[in-house]
Each structure stands twice: as structure tokens, then as C-alpha cells.
Amino acid sequence: MKKTLLLLFVTICIQTISAQKEPVIITIKNDPTAPTINKNIYGHFAEHLGRCIYGGFFVGDTSKIPNTNGVRNDIIKALKDLKIPNLRWPGGCFADTYHWKDGIGPKEQRPTIVNQWWGGVTEDNSFGTHDFLNLCEVLGAEPYLSGNVGSGTVQEFSDWIQYANFGGKSPMSDLRKKNGRTEPWKVKFWGIGNEAWGCGGNMTAEYYANEYRKFATFMSDWNNTGGITRIASGANSNDYNWTEVLMKNIPLNMLGGVGVHHYSVIDWNKKGDAVNFSEEQYFKTMKEALKMEELVTKHAAVMDKYDPEKKVAMVVDEWGGWYDVEKDTNPGFLYQQNTIRDAVLAGATLNIFNNHADRVRMANLAQCVNVLQAVILTDKAKMILTPTYHVMQMYNVHQDAKQLPISFDSPLYTFKDQTLRAVSASASKDKNGAIHISLVNVDAKNKHKIEIDTKDLGVKNFTAQIITSSKLQDYNSFESPNKISPVTFKDFDTKKGKLEINLPPFSVLVLEGK
Ligand code: AHR
């Protein structure tokens, strides 16, 4: 026993020392056959949950807070700056309780709805289909609507599509026009239920596959939208059987995408504080986040069996860190702060998506405003951008860029007797020929030396932006909103066609080569 412990100690010491000394050699290939990184990987999610919509996005057009048709102007600006490609709405679990017709027409005549999943609050339905789809237009983002399968009907769902998308004369397009909108919005992305294995109806995979086929049959694209993409409610984390059953039982021509949900949670009964966490909790969160690599690889392998041409997209339509709610807030509102831990989590996850761009073609961070791993937090008239926001902005250079396949052996981040890959990376070339390399150091203690051969990349001059802080637990507060934001990074050198970088602990770095 003593001998084993000693051996373990020595191994850890060697790993730690070598992590500090040996450079990590990263190879980046300029491969013309590599896929394009779909911009929709950088999507967001806005659920009727806590203060995401009401008191977050939507303050109403009589509010003193500057707004456009009731939506805060500061949020609109922040999301435009982010180049938000798509926004998922109205849930989440809420989607399978939502009846869209309650959210159209004169606001004062709309019925209320009690949000049964999230805090039991009564909503007045003042934010509905028009408000959401008009917001997406303002943002220049594709809407991704989640339809109600759990407690709705096929008729209700197909009417929603007709209402949003039909250009000719029909009962639903007439209703839309009566409500003030002549032109259809042409919504492309439609989710057929949400978490059908849980809050969406507690269905078996086999039962849901049949439901899916039925709903999908009546989802017409009305021949004027350029086609709609039907997205199946996907697996919970590593439920590969769910993906297998859907892929086997749903004809491929009915299936545009298959979802996957994965949250980085330490323990569902004891999630831990969003700010006051130990290194052990940090390590465990990162372990859950890095699991995304295995999840995406294994779900993709199942999909490959039935769809070798990769026609069906993997849509990771809920991901992010999930901690205990902030003290003195409604437990059903899922409001949490956002630290450098979240920045690292976001950077590492987006690297995984970029590197699997052949199959992962859409993803939605949960959630956009005031809920879970939010990019924006609000407090009455105040608004702050979280460290996660800054990572999403730094990474938007990868949107629709050509993936550059990357390979390296990562050093290890060791905590007690456990290890994780310390370094994560992805790279792409945009349409102007600029190269972007994203590097994340998950390691909470050690910096890592990185060496990248840049000879074949056709660029010479590099600049870099980094996000890090002095403590893992640092965050932006309403009192100190800019404590964490990206800064220029200079601790690298370009020598003889090589980039040598000193990557600080718990940091996210994006290099640009031109
Ligand atoms: O994002 C919060 C909730 O997490 C969503 O409503 C649900 O789909 C998931 O379980």
C-alpha cells in the first residue's frame, strides 16, 4: 500500500514537472477536405425561466429602460456584438407546456400561464411569437422554435408553422396578418419537443420516435421557406441508446438534427456555489465539461452507423455549467454568477464543437440572460457581460470558418490522484485567409508552454487576446462590471516559423494570424 502511494506521488511529481517544462507541440493542418465550422455552434437559448425573458430580455415598451418593442436595447446591442447566430425559444421544459396561441393578439386579452417547471410564477404571455421572431430579425439571428409535443397537439404545432411561415392565404397567415405581420418570418429551425425522456413527457425512446414521426409528417415547409429543419429531442448526456433508437426508427429524410443535452454539474444534489468553490470543485466541473469530447464522439459514432454521409446534424441544444442558485434568489429561477471557471468551461467546450464540426452543426449555451451559464446578467437598469460572454465573443471568429484539424498530446492537470487533459485547442481559417487558434489552459496551477508550427499556415503576423484573472473565483459584478474582460496578450514569440506561447493557468487565448 505504502509502495503504491509512493509510486503515485512520484508519478504526479514527474507529470507536474514535465507539464511545466516540456513544450506542448501542436500541429495544425491546412486540410482542404476539412469541414466548415457552422456558425450555429455559437447559438444561445432563451427560456421562459426565472428572469431570462421577463425582467431580462423583456421589460415592456412602457419601461424607463431603453427598449425596442419592449426588449432592452443594451441586450440587443450586446448580442449583436456577439454575432449571435441563432436563438432557441421558448424552452426547455417550458416549451412542452406552452400554447403559442396564448401569446398572440392584443396583449391585454391574452390568457395567463403558470410556469409549472420554473418557480410556479404566473406569466401574462406579453412576450409571444411576434415579440420573439421580431427580436430575432433585429438581432440578425435565426430563430429556433421548440414546439410543444408533451402537452400539445399535432394540429397546434402545424398551425404554428403555418402562422410563422406561410406566405399565401390560409387561416393562420390571415391571423398573423390580423395581428400586424404581413410577411412570414420563414423560421427554419423547429425542435420537436424537448427532453422527451423527462420534462417533455417521460417517454421511452421508442415511443418518442413514433411521436416524432407523426409530428414531423404534418410539419409542412409551405414551399416558400427554403426548407425547414426538424430537430429531434435528443439524449440526456451519455444515453447513447436514445440516439440509437431515434436514428434507427426515424427515416433520415424526416430528420434534420438530433439533439444532445449535457450540463457540467458536479452532483445534482449538491451542485456547489457558483463563486465560492474549491479547486476540487473546479476540477470536477472541468471533468464534466471535458466529458463533452467523449459524448460527441460516441453519439457521432452511433449516428455514423445510420447516416454515414453525415446529413443529420448533431445539435447540442443545451450545454453549460449548472451550480446552486445565488443566495436569496428563487430556487426555481436558476440565477447564478459566472466566473473564470465558466470562461474556461466555455472555451474548452467550444473547442470540442469546432473540432467535431463535421457532425456538430448547432449548439445552444444554456442560457442567454440571468439563467445558468448566462452571457448577460441584469439588475433592474444595470447590465453586465460575464466572462462567458467574452469567450463567446473572442471565439466568434470561428463562425463559418474552415476548420483546421489540430493534433497534440496534452500535458496533464493533476488534482490529488486524478488527472485531466490540461490544454484544449481548435483552429480555423476565415474567408479572408486569417487564421484563428483558440487555446485553453484548464490547469488551475501551472502555465504551459505551447509550440505551434506555423510554416504551412501562410500567415506571419500574430496578435492575441486573453481572458484570465488572478483568482479562479473572480467574476464581473454590478459594482465592478469590467473586472474580467479580454486583454491583449504578448507572452508569445514567433521564431523560424514557430509560435512559442506561454499559456497562463486557467486562461482562454485566441491568436489571430494574418
Ligand atoms: O436549462 C434549464 C432546463 O434544463 C431546461 O428547461 C431543460 O430542458 C433542462 O433540463
Automatic annotation (TrEMBL):
Cross-referenced SMART domains: Alpha-L-AF_C
InterPro entries the record matches: Alpha-L-AF_C (IPR010720), ASD1_cat (IPR055235), GH (IPR017853), Glyco_hydro_b (IPR013780)
One BP annotation, GO: polysaccharide catabolic process
Superkingdom, taxonomy of origin: Bacteria
Oligomer status and interactors: Homohexamer; trimer of dimers.
Family of the protein in this entry: Belongs to the glycosyl hydrolase 51 family.
A Pfam entry, by short name: Alpha-L-AF_C
Protein name (record): non-reducing end alpha-L-arabinofuranosidase
Keywords, sorted A to Z: Carbohydrate metabolism, Glycosidase, Hydrolase
Domain Alpha-L-arabinofuranosidase C-terminal: 317-507
Keyword Hydrolase recorded: yes
Enzyme Commission (EC) number: 3.2.1.55
Entry's transmembrane regions: none
Keyword Hydrolase: yes
Catalytic reaction annotation: Hydrolysis of terminal non-reducing alpha-L-arabinofuranoside residues in alpha-L-arabinosides
Top-level class of the enzyme under EC nomenclature: hydrolase
Gene Ontology MF term list: alpha-L-arabinofuranosidase activity
